Amino acid sequence: MEIFSQTNSWKFLSLMFTVNLVRYLILAGVPFLIFYVWQKQRKQPTKIQPKFQKNADYQREILYSILTFGIFALVGMFIYHPAVLPQTLLYKQWNEYGTAYGILSFFLLILLHDTYFYWTHRAMHHPKLFKLFHLVHHKSTNPSPWAAFAFQPTEAFVEAGILILAAFVLPLHGYVILAFLVFMTIYNVYGHLGWELYPAHFNRHFLARWLNTSVNHNQHHQYFKGNYGLYFRWWDEWMGTTRSDYNNTFETLKR
Fold it and tell me: CA–CA separation, 108 vs 112, rounded Å?
């Protein structure tokens, strides 16, 4: 947390941008190489949407993602600014809260993010907000792993807002934030993968059914309506926004 005061703001911004970009290139790039290059022909029969995107689609997704990481870096710089950081609940010494709370805070952050995402995501689908915030992301009607962070700048600020909110409502250690960012990226990439990795009948299990799936989010990209959740499906279920054909689509794909 002392890094901002030890370097100038541009070096800090560059560091944050680079970390975000490298995380994306690895965690989205490896699945892309496996599913869209190496195993492309063998795995095509099990692809959620059989067709493959054009190279121009991949390029658009990557370019907007790079822009997103610049905005994420700006938000990170704001949080860690010497005038802002002392006002947050972020802490430096792990022993200040201990390991039990450190683990708990990771899951609390996931729950907070899932709630934040559902409601902001659903709001951005309002006709008066969609073009201003969410249109670019939905240009990927058949998303690839590269689409995970392909946001227009306005949406990128909204997505980064979870870190600002979390910094002021939860005591968080830097290690927890880092673990959360890795987990968030992995699950986000999985949601945009184009293949379902969970096994057959997963959607009917009394516990597993509450987890979001790649089929679920792929339907959201394909049809633009319903299935607004990120990690879990309970907000969609409670609010009646799960697509009626979700279970049938999942089961047909996993036969």
Answer: 6
- The DSSP 8-state label assigned to residue 129 in this structure reads T
3-state secondary structure 188-229: HHHHCCCCCCCCCCHHHCCCHHHECCHHHHHHHHHHCCCCCC
253 within some domain: no
| Structural element, H or E, at residue 173 | strand 172-173
Helix (H, G, I), strand (E, B) or coil at 160: helix
Cβ neighbours for 197, distance < 8 A, ≥ 6 positions apart = 190, 214
Residue 243 domain-assigned?
A: no
pLDDT digits (tens, 9 = 90+) for 87-130: 999 999 999 999 999 999 999 999 999 999 999 999 999 999 99
Which helix (H) or strand (E) segment holds residue 100: the answer is helix 98-124
* Structure-token pair, residue 124: 């951005």
- C-alpha 84/C-alpha 98 separation (Å) is 24
- Tell which phi-psi region holds residue 170, choosing left (phi > 0), alpha (psi between -120 and 50) or beta: beta
Q: Is residue 20 part of a domain?
A: yes
Encoded tokens for 86: 């002392």
CA 19 to chain centre: 16
Q: Which domain holds residue 162?
A: 3-197
